[in-house]
Design a protein that fits this description.
The protein is an all-alpha fold and 162 residues long. It is built from four helices and no strands.
Length: 162
């Protein structure tokens, strides 16, 4: 059972730590460096770079989420169930659902809008429906990641208590 508990904990750590790293380090650095290097196209390039990072991280999040959910279920049915099994499982499933929603329909529609705009989104008028929709999707993506980050830290709290 130690291996399963370790896999669940590793999945939570990689997933939560990855969210911290891309949100607190990668995004600010990408925008700061690329905007400073190219005043005209830097923001667009940073957005493209960060979008690709998010798409790649989505795959990591799906694997980590599957490991966490499967590990919790294995612990429940094979070994002694973890404390607060049901809340932990609900949190893990919610995190995985948030990650899938953010990674598939939200990031997919953001990419479609960027392609259709054929240029920088911030160059579109603020009332342009594509820009309005892009801004809403961007906020949705940010909110979903923030929620997952909070849930990830809450899940890690349970492991720290055991």
């Amino acid at each position: 059972m130690f291996v399963v508990r370790y896999a669940v904990l590793a999945g939570l750590v990689v997933w939560t730590g990855g969210m911290v790293a891309i949100g607190a380090i990668v995004a600010p650095s990408a925008f700061q460096v690329l905007e400073a290097a190219d005043a005209h196209n830097g923001r667009v390039l940073a957005g493209l770079l960060f979008g690709d990072v998010l798409r790649q991280f989505s795959a990591v999040a799906y694997v980590c989420g599957a490991v966490v959910v499967a590990g919790l279920l294995i612990m429940k049915f094979v070994g002694p169930p973890p404390r607060a099994f049901v809340p932990r499982l609900i949190l893990s499933v919610a995190m995985l659902a948030n990650a899938i929603y953010a990674g598939v329909p939200v990031l997919g529609e953001i990419a479609q809008i960027q392609t259709a705009a054929a240029g920088p989104i911030n160059a579109l008028p603020e009332s342009d429906p594509r820009r309005v929709r892009f801004d809403r999707l961007h906020q949705t993506s940010t909110t979903l990641m923030s929620v997952n980050l909070g849930l990830g830290f809450l899940s890690l709290f349970w492991y720290a208590r055991e």
